[in-house]
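for the recovery benchmark. tokens below, seq after
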């Protein structure tokens, strides 16, 4: 009986020690960067925006951040050092809603970082959603300050196997300058690929009223974006509208919400221009970009060369909008690009 008790105690102690060793390994390597910056020589795999962004926001070294959806993943942070003298980190979320931006800005501005600039891509279609809506459920235990629920991180099989042991066995350290970049390689950016995969929407007969989106947009701005601008007057917010291809505007026309979409752009711009620490950039009316489908891999995602161009604009002020009048002119130019584009010729060709 005593031998049996000793075996039980020994087994319990062994299991306890194993758990302690696993937790110690996770804390030491810290693949989600919850407790410290990356170890210099460990080949970290960074591919999980939901789980790794909060830790990077807490513990990486930076003075500026890139926020937004997949429209921002092809930025190279080295360009921001080269052109703007900023040490920049990407903390984007594919398909991000305004609440996703708020969740990560909570961590950014609660950290000890001096944040000189935030580069925030605004996707108008996501600002019509609910103020608490996120693209994907977030792992709350990585976003809060409660260490008790970190057991979900410390004793996580996926963390140990895929983010510690696998990189050790097959070291290929993620380049943080290009982290989260699109899987599309250069050969996918061409009109044949885009048109082959594009599905033209059915025509909607009912017109969406021009003010249909304004209430939701206003709530999202007031809840998820504007408070961070107001509370951080020493941070410059570079707010920019990404250049979706002309096919995006074909969708807008077919779905009959052109006026509502234009009104949404205008409302967001007018709201942002009221702040002294905001610089606003409008890229959708760049005809040389949006009408050339060789710049795209689908109806909205553009080549990294376009991201490079946008970075140059942030540095030299090209495409910047500084007043309501300039925004009105930018939207008029956008309308002109849409009106002059020959959609029927585009769709008459076999791809």
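predicted aa per position
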């Amino acid at each position: 009986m005593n031998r049996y008790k000793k075996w039980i105690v020994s087994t319990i102690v062994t299991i306890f020690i194993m758990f302690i060793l696993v937790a110690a390994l996770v804390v030491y390597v810290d693949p989600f960067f919850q407790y410290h910056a990356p170890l210099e020589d460990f080949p970290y795999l960074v591919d999980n925006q939901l789980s790794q962004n909060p830790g990077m926001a807490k513990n990486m070294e930076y003075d500026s951040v890139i926020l937004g959806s997949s429209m921002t993943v092809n930025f190279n942070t080295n360009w921001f050092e080269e052109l703007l003298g900023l040490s920049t980190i990407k903390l984007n979320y594919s398909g991000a809603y305004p609440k996703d931006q708020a969740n990560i800005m909570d961590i950014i501005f609660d950290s000890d970082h001096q944040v000189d600039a935030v580069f925030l891509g605004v996707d108008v279609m996501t600002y019509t959603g609910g103020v608490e809506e996120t693209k994907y459920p977030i792992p709350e235990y990585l976003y809060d300050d409660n260490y008790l629920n970190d057991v979900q991180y410390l004793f996580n099989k996926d963390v140990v196997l895929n983010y510690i042991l696998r990189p050790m066995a097959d070291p290929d350290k993620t380049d943080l300058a290009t982290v989260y970049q699109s899987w599309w390689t250069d050969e996918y950016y061409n009109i044949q690929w885009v048109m082959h995969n594009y599905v033209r929407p059915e025509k909607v007969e009912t017109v969406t009223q021009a003010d249909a989106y304004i209430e939701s947009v206003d709530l999202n701005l007031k809840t998820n974006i504007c408070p961070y601008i107001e509370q951080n007057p020493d941070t410059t917010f570079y707010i920019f509208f990404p250049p979706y291809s002309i096919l995006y505007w074909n969708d807008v026309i077919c779905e009959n919400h052109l006026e509502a979409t234009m009104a949404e752009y205008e409302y967001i711009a007018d709201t942002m221009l009221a702040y002294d620490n905001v610089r606003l950039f409008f890229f959708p009316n760049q005809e040389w970009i949006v009408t050339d489908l060789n710049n795209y891999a689908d109806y909205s995602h553009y080549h990294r060369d376009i991201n490079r161009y946008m970075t140059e604009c942030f540095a030299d002020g090209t495409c910047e909008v500084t007043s309501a009048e300039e925004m009105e002119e930018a939207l008029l130019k956008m309308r002109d690009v849409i009106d002059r584009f020959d959609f029927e010729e585009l769709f008459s060709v076999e791809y």
